[in-house]
Amino acid sequence: MALVALAAVAVAAVRIWTGIRGGTQGRTTATIASTGTQTGAAATSTVVSTTTTRRVHVRPPGPPYAVGIQSEQIVEPASPSVATGKTSAGAPARILPTQIRYPASGSAGGAERPGAPAAMASGPFPLIVFSQGYYTPVSAYSGLMDAWTRAGYVVAAPTYPLTAPSWPGGPNESDIVNHPNDLRFVISVLMAQANNPQSPLYHLVNVNEIAVAGQSDGGDVSLAVAANTCCMDHAVKAAVIMSGAELSGFGGSYFSGGSTPLLVTQGDEDAVNRPGCSATLYNQAPAPKYFVDLLQDGAQSKQSSLETWREHLQPYVSPGPPRNYVARTSTAFFDYYLKNDRSGLLSLTAAGGVPGVAKITTAPQVSNLGTACP
Q1: First and final CA of the chain: distance in angstroms?
Q2: How far is the CA of 115 from the CAs of 21, 112, 192, in angstroms?
Q3: Do the Cβ atoms of 70 and 98 come closer than 8 Å?
Q4: For the structural domain made of 3-15+58-361, what CATH number should be given?
Q5: What is the pTM of this model?
Q6: Which residues contact 322 (CB under 8 A, 6 or more apart)?
Q7: Which of 142, 172, 184, 319 is the most buried (most CB within 10 A)?
Q8: pLDDT at 136 over 90
Q9: Which residue, 84, 219, 224, is CA-closest to 162?
Q10: Residue 188 — φ and ψ, nearest 5°?
C-alpha cells in the first residue's frame, strides 16, 4: 500500500480527533523546589538566594481507567470491483468507519466519554483491533470492548463494508473475503498514526504490542490475519477467536506458517458457529493456546431462528456471567501476551473455569463438543 495514502489518513484522523491528549506527553513528574538564604555579619553584606530542583517520579495512574471514545473514517484504496466509496481525490476506496476506545483520565466508573482526555501519563498502551460478526453492529460489543479499555488497552473496531446491518440495500456476507485485507490496512494506519507526532495516537498506542479479536465472521477474519498464510500480519502478537472458524474462501493455509498465541471461545449450544468449528481450529493450532467452553442451556433442535441467533451472540453482547467470564479471561490473556503479566491467566487456567458458566483448558486437543464443523 502507498505510504502517501497512510500519511493522508493519519492527517485526516488528527483533524477528526480533538483535545484527547489533554496535557503533557510522557510520564508524570513532580518538581519540588527548596530555597535557602545566606546572610553575612557586615551591614554591607548581601542576601543570596539559591534554588535547587529535585525531580520526584510519581507513579502514573493504573487500571481501571475511564473509557474515552472517538471515531474516525479510514479510507482504504481499492479496486473498483470491491470499492464502497471514493477517496478525497475521487479514486475508488473502501470506507471503514472505526470506533476507537482509549484509557481516559478521570474516574473509572460511568459511561463512555466521547473526546475525554487520554490517560497519556500511563501510556503507551497495547492495541486490540476488534472485528464484529455478520449483521451485528460494533456497538453491540461495547461491554466487552469497554472492559478491555478499562484494563489499559486502546481498542479499535472498524465496521466492515457490506456486512453491517446498516448497509444500504442490506448486507452481503460474501464480502468477507475482503475483510482480512481491510483488517490489515486498519492495523497499518493505526501504527502509522501512533508513530506520527501530529496524531492523537502518538505516545498513546504501543505499536510493538498489538492483538486482534473477533466474533463469528469477525473471528474468521481475525484468525486469518493471525494464522493463515494468505493474510498473516506479523505485527499481531496475540489473537482471541470467539465462535470463529477456518474459512477456505480466504485461500492460503492455516498454521503452516506458525501462529500467534490463541484464545478460542465457543458456546457449547451455538448452532450458528458449530462447536466443532472452534474445536477444529484449536486442535490444529500450535501452543500456546487456550480453549474456553461456554456452557449454555437449551436444545438446538427446539430453538427458533431468532433464538438460535441470540444464543450465538449472548456470551459476547449480553450482560451476565458468560460475558463477564469472556471479558475476564480475554483480558488476562492479553495481559499475559502483551503486558507480560502472567498471574491472571495462570490463576484462571488453574481454576479450570466457573461451574455452570465455562470451562477452560490448555490441552493439546479438545473433542468436537458434539458437532462437526460444516
Answers
A1: 35
A2: 9, 9, 21
A3: no
A4: 3.40.50.1820
A5: 0.86
A6: 267, 294, 296, 314, 315, 357, 358
A7: 184
A8: yes
A9: 84
A10: -65, -40
The helix (H) or strand (E) run that includes residue 130 is strand 125-131
Report which of 270, 257, 372 is spatially closest to residue 313, judged by C-alpha positions.
Answer: 270
C-alpha cell at 370: 458434539
Select from 277, 280, 278, 320 the least CA-distant residue to 296: 320
Cis-peptide, bond into residue 364, ω within 30° of zero:
no
For the chain, give every domain's residue range. Answer: 3-15+58-361
Record the cell numbers describing residue 116, joined without a space: 475525554
Give the angle 188-17-183 at the CA atoms, nearest 5°.
Answer: 25
Q: DSSP letters along 8-61, please? A: HHHHHHHHH--S-S-S-SSS-EEEEEEEEEE--SSTT---EEEEEEEEEE-PPP
Mean pLDDT over residues 94-119, rounded? Answer: 94
SS3 content of the chain, % helix, strand, coil (to 5): 30, 25, 40
pLDDT of residue 4: 40
